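Our consortium's second objective concerns turning raw sequence data into structural hypotheses that experimental partners can test. To show how far this objective has progressed, the report includes one record in full. It was chosen at random from the queue rather than selected for favorable results. The single chain below, 113 residues long, was entered without modification.
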Amino acid sequence: MNKHWIIVFVAAFFEIFWVIGLKHSDNWWSWIGTIIAIVFTFYLLLIAGKNLPVGTVYAVFVGLGTAGTVLADVLFFGEPISVAKILLISLLLAGVIGLKLVTNDSSQEEEVN
């Protein structure tokens, strides 16, 4: 895995924080932290999108962010979990992993040529 994919994973990690912040921010400091996380996340996506296929980057970013946000809701905020929810998140993650595996990024193409 190259450094640009790691940047996508870091962006997805910060996406979890700002999505939670959108719901739970109740003062200026938490709103400022949420806004900083949003700006930082999309800055990382811009960096990764310059070197990787943008559609795949965005799909991986959104899929990981969604799964992480649901997991955080369950672990930290008492959201109920069900077998159906676990299966659907697993399906989402399988799709994200599959999309990542079948995508040739520009670094790999340069190594082949």
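The partners drew two points from this record. The radius of gyration is 16 Å. The chain has one domain: 3-104. Both points have been shared with the crystallography group to help prioritize constructs.
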